[in-house]
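Q: what sequence does this backbone want?
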């Protein structure tokens, strides 16, 4: 599938005209049409868009019928803006749909999860195994006093018990609140408190970067500050010594292992709460995003089946996210298992014990579909293409990207070095709040554009609007909104309907504002530009940090870049860039001013003089959360030369010291 353009023809529109929307400056002209072979076998065909457009609600009813319902719905959609109910009156059990029905259909021997521990221990879990473990866990939770409607906090590493626990809660109708295992005791306590959790499921620890990382001490600290937790169920994973509170703490192996491996499930109302997932902001009270049962499962199963082109009898699927994030909920647990996927689950970090670990695992299990984050792809670029080249990745046939906009150069690197220059890439846009995928190419249908999420999926309605809420023309930029309800949408913020309305529905009355900037190209395809908070105002031009970052990453010396706006007395804001160079850049070149000036000129050429960075700092690493997101607010602190804020959610808090030490040597000449 050859590149059909004249290369990375990223051209400038000069300084352009000032506009109310975002400046639409960077251009990407490479195109990758689907192969005839892929299109012929694809789950999604072009008529999916037409069918959805002809009867949007009826289309979603068709998708819901792919699930097994105990009782049919009487009304497909009850829309009282901004509150939606889907499949009203219908009843189903999520765990039954993800596990039992596959066993009943004769697929009990199919592998559900190939689990790989960081130290190299493994477990193979079939659907029959999964059914037994979920039933035992549900029985254990019942014995511990957990019933329908009770909230359960889950604070676990990436081990199979995390999946058992989530599905057991879903089976019982006990909404779970999964808290990422890298979060602090403070973050855990606030989430337990807000949800009034009755029980916590945790482990002594997990493995991270070759060492056991304790979890139980954070649970003890958090539970001591709250009043609702009655039981703490503890998985023994690392064998670390743990403090123990008799009567409250129980070992998983003591209580779960002795339970019967059958469980009579109950069908729950379509709108029964399935889970609460807290957004990970470090300021103010965290927002508990509420997702319910029928609409959520309908959308995550539908999107997983069509966007990843899943063939359950032959594919091996791997989403590299953590269950602590919404990606792990929707595209490790609920969507794939509802579709009878065989998947890989990995406990550890991608560079432990070596930088080829991900590719080694992909080769070992014959992974055919890989879904990961741009930050990991850019890290792999930094390490060099010789690492994936050492492994057989020839079975990979679909690649996915999630978490933030992907730079075009990272997209092309991913396709070439992981996808054999043939696997389509689905660049997916969605949020914790949306529950499931919203904007993405459909492999086999879409002619791909590196860096673009492209079109709302069939059944989804999205628009890019200006400051007054009017749709922008093709070629314009503005704010991404969703203007029709969708099945997996959040049903509110737990316990705070007023905050829900103010946060998501007040900026543009009557439509959902995602908080992201976007542009439409001349074809009407959507390009995400990151959070509106990450837009810089330079001499009256509102420029997205994402576009400048993409221009920097398109330079052959750059592996990763983060861009922020810093107060500037002349231009309002100046562009400050932090770049990580690729491993093959010579040390003397990397440490000199020449590369900085070369990169500044490169950005000016790719986008226009208005986007030339005021400063570029070459740094060894960027501040990232453990989910891989770059924390630009900390970089703004550095750029503004003020005290660096809270670093507790960083994967490595020492990164900021390394970056701060670079500031005096930053170049700010015009070059």
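A:
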């Amino acid at each position: 599938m050859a590149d059909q353009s004249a290369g990375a023809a990223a051209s400038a529109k000069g300084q352009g005209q000032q506009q109310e929307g975002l400046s639409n400056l960077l251009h990407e002209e490479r195109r990758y049409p689907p192969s005839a072979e892929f299109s012929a076998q694809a789950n999604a065909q072009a008529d999916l868009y037409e069918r959805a457009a002809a009867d949007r609600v009826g289309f979603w009813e068709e998708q819901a019928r792919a699930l097994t319902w105990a009782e049919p719905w009487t009304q497909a959609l009850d829309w009282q803006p901004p509150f939606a109910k889907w499949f009203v009156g219908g009843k189903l059990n999520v765990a039954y749909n993800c596990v039992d029905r596959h066993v009943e259909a004769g697929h009990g021997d199919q592998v559900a999860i190939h689990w790989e521990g960081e130290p190299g221990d493994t477990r193979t879990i079939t659907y029959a195994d999964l059914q037994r473990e979920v039933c035992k866990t549900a029985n254990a939770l019942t014995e511990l006093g957990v019933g329908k409607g009770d909230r359960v906090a889950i604070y676990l590493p990436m081990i199979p018990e995390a999946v058992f626990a989530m599905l057991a809660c879903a089976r019982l109708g006990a909404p779970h609140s999964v808290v990422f295992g890298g979060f602090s005791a403070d973050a855990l306590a606030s989430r337990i408190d807000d949800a009034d959790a009755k029980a916590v499921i945790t482990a002594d620890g997990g493995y991270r970067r070759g060492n056991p990382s304790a979890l139980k001490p954070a649970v003890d600290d958090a539970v001591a500050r709250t009043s609702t937790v009655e039981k703490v169920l503890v998985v023994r994973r690392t064998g670390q010594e743990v403090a123990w509170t008799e009567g409250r703490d129980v070992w998983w192996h003591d209580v779960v292992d002795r339970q019967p491996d059958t469980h009579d499930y109950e069908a729950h109302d379509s709108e029964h709460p399935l889970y609460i997932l807290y957004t990970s902001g470090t300021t103010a009270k965290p927002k508990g995003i509420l997702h319910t049962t029928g609409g959520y499962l309908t959308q995550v199963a539908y999107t997983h089946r069509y966007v990843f082109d899943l063939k359950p009898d032959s594919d091996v699927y791997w989403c590299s996210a953590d269950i602590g994030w919404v990606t792990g909920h929707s595209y490790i647990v609920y969507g794939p298992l509802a579709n009878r996927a065989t998947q890989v689950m990995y406990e550890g970090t991608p560079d432990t014990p070596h930088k080829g670990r991900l590719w080694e695992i992909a080769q070992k299990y014959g992974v055919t579909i890989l879904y990961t984050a741009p930050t990991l792809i850019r890290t792999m670029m930094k390490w060099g293409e010789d690492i994936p080249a050492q492994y057989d990745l020839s079975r990979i046939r679909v690649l996915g990207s999630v978490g933030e906009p992907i730079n075009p150069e990272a997209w092309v690197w991913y396709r070439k070095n992981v996808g054999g220059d043939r696997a389509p890439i689905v660049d997916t846009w969605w949020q914790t709040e949306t529950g499931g995928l919203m904007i993405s190419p459909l492999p086999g249908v879409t002619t791909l554009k590196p860096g673009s999420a492209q079109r709302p999926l069939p059944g989804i309605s999205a628009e890019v609007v200006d400051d007054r809420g009017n749709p922008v023309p093709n070629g314009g930029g503005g704010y991404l909104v969703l203007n029709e309800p969708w099945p997996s949408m959040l049903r509110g913020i737990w316990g705070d309907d007023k905050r829900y309305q103010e946060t998501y529905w007040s900026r543009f009355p009557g439509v959902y504002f995602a908080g992201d900037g976007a542009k439409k190209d001349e074809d009407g395809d959507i390009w995400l530009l990151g959070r509106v908070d990450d837009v810089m105002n330079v001499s009256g031009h509102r420029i997205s940090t994402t576009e400048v970052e993409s221009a920097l990453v398109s330079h052959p010396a750059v592996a990763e870049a983060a861009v922020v706006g810093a107060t500037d007395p002349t231009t309002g804001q100046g562009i400050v860039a932090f770049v990580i160079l690729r491993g093959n850049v010579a040390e003397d070149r990397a440490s000199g001013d020449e590369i900085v000036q070369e990169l500044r000129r490169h950005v000016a050429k790719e986008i226009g003089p208005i986007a030339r960075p005021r400063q570029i700092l070459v740094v060894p690493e960027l501040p990232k959360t453990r989910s891989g997101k770059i924390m630009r607010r900390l970089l703004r602190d550095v750029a503004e030369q003020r005290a660096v804020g809270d670093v507790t959610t960083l994967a490595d808090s020492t990164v900021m010291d390394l970056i701060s030490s670079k500031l005096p040597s930053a170049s700010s000449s015009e070059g």
